[in-house]
# Entry
Amino acid sequence: MALWRERWYIQKRRAKAFFSGLAYGLCRVFPINPNKVVMWTFEGNGGFGCSPRYIAQELLRRNGAGETRYQIYWLVCDMEKEFPPEIQKVRSTLWSRAYHLSTARFWVANTRTFYGAKKRKGTAYFQTWHGTVSLKPIGKYRGDQLPQMACLASEADSRLMDYALSGSRWCTETWRDGLIYQGEILETGTPRCDVLFTGAEEKRRQLREEYHLPMDSRILLYAPTFRGGSQNTARSVSAEAVSIQFSQVIRALEERFGGTWYVFLRLHPQLAAQMGRMPVGDGDSRLIDVSQRSDMNEIIAASDGMITDYSSAAFESMLIRQPVFLYIDDLREYIADRGKLMFTWEEIPFSAAFDPEGLVRNILAFDREKYEGDVERFIKKTGIIEDGHASQRVADLLEAEG
# Structure
């Protein structure tokens, strides 16, 4: 990438951010609503999902009990996305963001805010982030692969943040460089993980009914992580055709674990917003694309196992002792683009395969006793504190701030 092109792109982004800031300045004529909460996921490309979803549900529960009177607004790019009727959807445009963020008492998000946003004194910004413990490096852990524009955007957003939420000692220790953030980090647990502990049975029933599956069927979730542009220039997303032979995977699952298995296919929300469906060539009727569902963790809660690559979702599926298999067919390219992984293969409790045949072998050779022992040791080593009550703790913090 020519250096002049990168510099031009950065100057263009800075100029756009400057003029965006003027809109926020003009909107300061409006007062802050002490009960107003503005939320977003994946820069507006997500829907009612991730940690903001579970915080919102807890706030709505308290509203229903007459304990609070929060008004929740949600910034979205696609107004067709479904939300509870108590939540006001807002199309994410510059002026709508400027008005609603300028008049909110709280911001709650799982990704960076919008470059150029200005936060008023009297507004508290809670960053839940969209990952927990993970293989994938973020922030300064990317080393020389961290684009200058990504660093500038992270630094700008971190100056606005009041609190970053953590679900483990590992996250607390890595968020400083990972989020490029020097503010307060609260070990509340991760709200999006609550459903794994408190709603798994309900979600297992709900998703099987919704997709017309037998109640005793088993589900494997395939959820590769995000692939995106470097952010040195205009950001793009990409997903090549999946190389896994799912018919072979299903046969291996049924041979090793018994039962009848289905595979849920799940694109990352930033990919799903542009691509719609996962590009798979396998025509097996037991492949079900769930990429348009807003929340990943309700799918994990309903599943019986997972295949992913570098996603933190592996460590969330692990929390409820689901078998997790890593399938990585682009390791060299991924490290060249993203930077060195956060763990070695020996440190994590999952097997890793680098070709379709290796994935099948790992499924057939799965040793549950060894796996559960490795999981327990990993949880202890990383200081994971998830217990299903993170949303309640965060809601308590909002009330205390209010």
Q: What stands out?
A: Residues 204 and 345 are 31 Å apart (CA to CA). The chain has 15 helices and 13 strands. The mean pLDDT is 93.
